[in-house]
TrEMBL record:
GO terms for molecular function: transferase activity. This is GNAT family N-acetyltransferase. Keywords: Transferase. Pfam families: Acetyltransf_6. It comes from the Bacteria. It comes from Mesorhizobium atlanticum. Residues 196-329 form the BioF2-like acetyltransferase domain. The keyword Transferase applies. InterPro entries: BioF2-like_GNAT_dom.
Amino acid sequence: MERPVQQADRVENKPAKVEAFVRLFNEVPVRDLVANLKTKVETFELAGHVFPLTLNGADDAPNCYICCPTGAYIDYAMDETRNFAAHPLLKRALNALIRACAPLVRASGLDRQAQVNNWLYSTNPVPLLDRPTAASLRADLTARFPDRAIVIRSLNDIADPATIAALKAEGFRMLAARQIYIFADRSAAPAMTRDMKRDRARLRETPFERVGNGDFTGADYARAEQLYNLLYLDKYTPLNPHYTARYIAEMHRRGIISLAGLRRPGGELVAVTGLFENGRTLTQPIVGYDTDLPVADGLYRMMMAVAQEHATARGLFFNMSAGAAGFKRRRGAVAAIEYNAVYAGHLPLRRRMAIRVMEAVLALVGIPLLRRFEL
């Protein structure tokens, strides 16, 4: 007989923090917080768990991928093919495959969704769900939203094996999304890598001033938005969430995220990071730096070192999200495939079949590509 999958419950979802988050997105227009997002945010309570819940319809598209699977599986996927510039034939083949699959994704109707545990980050760590809780979640939400797919993002085999097993047993489909990188508590792990030691040394010796969580001013929030935009929207892709200065300020002031950064002595910020600590799990939803400064200044490396220091000092499980694969591997992180769990058993046959085919295509084609090219 197979032994049950063990999973630590590292995610807490403190009710006060969930309430603060939901209240923010109900007090302030969503577009004033995330400029390219349309959604409605509610609180969902079940079996002692409290979750933020987002509600979206197909008429919200085009929308940010954090609430819009067509944005993730079509628009963002097309944009990601830029990583195959050195393989032009493969790039053309992938573009053709994504275009061929686009009608399938649209037929799934996944943009009409109720998304559980959506903190509106690219990475939303999920509390441990056993099978009875998964069954109750499915029953409750399908009764409330009979025409919406039920979605949970950010599941992976390292952090969430038992939750994935419970959701599968209750009829959820696992749609591969991307490859992410996990930096676990290093109390029992090997010593720091050479790159980690270099990053810490640079952080100690930098001529820039370190800015702590309590040191941020109104001007710093505006500058933090600029720095985030320089990296995530200008260097990477404008499809990423457009977090505004007001979002950064409100999330910080309400105690949902903590901030750290570097500034010119007595001057403006040159780098910033926002950390989201949830139970014993850490994510880093905001990173930004002045991309006009020399790479040799090591601003990105130092912001990642700040987060790794935070995780190590507190014994946290650090989900480093996707991207910069080689960089993260050299700093002790290991790869995992991330999934979107989708329940559609209450939806029309056409939508259910489209989701099943998506699951199969992503498993057969998507996962091997993610692993091969570390996307």
